[in-house]
Amino acid sequence: MSELDNNPDDDVTNEGGDPADNTPENTFKAITSQDDFDKAVARRVARERKKYEGFEDFKAKAEQFEKLEAEKGSDIEKLTRRAEKAERDLASLTEKLSKAERNETVRDIADELGLPKKLVKRVQGDTEEDIRADIEDLLEGLPKGETKDDPEDKGNKKPPSQAPKARMTFTAPGDESDQGLEVSADDILKDLPRGGGVG
Fold it and tell me: 127 burial class (0-12, 13-18, 19+ CB within 10 angstroms)?
């Protein structure tokens, strides 16, 4: 243990009390001075420090390792979040694309079979056969005159009249002295000042 512990001149016996077991490992010398005590403590501290030599290096390396693991973990988490977002975006775009393709198929079949555009939104089904069957069912339920927008019918329709509307006239009821005096709304409006002010 220490120089004091290894002194062979010491005649202190071990716990068993057998003087034959007085080996350097089993002997003890009492410390009688402060100087001897300080030396013994210094030797003991040196032995303990020797046990932990390089501990600071190991501690620094452990901290670096933990830091790298944390960065690695955060990188993995970032990549995982990016992958999940990409999968959600892909699913959303796939859904939009399938809806657009379905709507295009519905419009094509509706135009082919002559379904009025007002009823296109009511068509059900996902496959072309289902869509076609639903459109045919809708057409069967319609009166025969409404099934197609014939270009010939458009020729028979008259455009709105470009003739001016009849003028409104105002007369006072029961006043026969103003017989023949008629005032139109246009005449009244002509007399009003423009710009919103009273004039």
Answer: exposed
